[in-house]
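Practice problem: predict the structure.
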Amino acid sequence: MIITPDIHYVHAGDIFRDLDAQQRAQIERSMSYKTCSAGQILHSPDEYGEQLFILNSGRVRLYKLSTEGRALTLAVLEAVTIFGEMTLVGQWMHDSFAEAMTECTIGVIDREALRQILQQYPSVALSFMELMGQRLQAMENKLADIAFKSVPQRLASVLINLAHKPAGVTPVEEPGSTRDTTSPQVVRYTHQQLAEMVGAYRETVTKAFGEFREAGLIRVEEDRIYLTDLEQLQQLANR
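Answer:
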């Protein structure tokens, strides 16, 4: 299904954020768009890559699988951002899986079109480099956490990162809603999904999650996890 989504909003991962509407429209003409259903695999390891993906709506996770079939989630991406970029800077094969966690709207730019964009718009090239640097730093931090921190510490860190929102964004609730809008909140993930994010077994994460609830650090309601004691979670994550 080909659609034309509105991409005129700003996010830290939007490499086109410094372009004006006319420049964005020019780039849009070099893109194709598609919708992907939850669970759809967008790229796989050892798959030849010639395209950059732009996540315009929905969530995507990047992950690796061990030879035993255990998954390690490298990142959970939210719109607007890019992925698949490493195949365009010398690494021609994907080294991870990309899976749609929800229904997603994704734009696609091929290698040659992206190179022309980067040459024409230096601000896009700089944003591209900044994002790649942030991704590399995040991977290094994740490796350090797995090597040096306990599962509860890693779980606290993941929950805090997932709850992060751009400054000034306030949740919009239906009139009459009793939902808590004061505590940082996370879309509810399964214990298996959280285990794959922290690099641990599900049973270990379930135990830590239960301890967080008993200590009043989090509260689970419907489709949300509320971080009810953010200060304690931060102290735990930073130990």
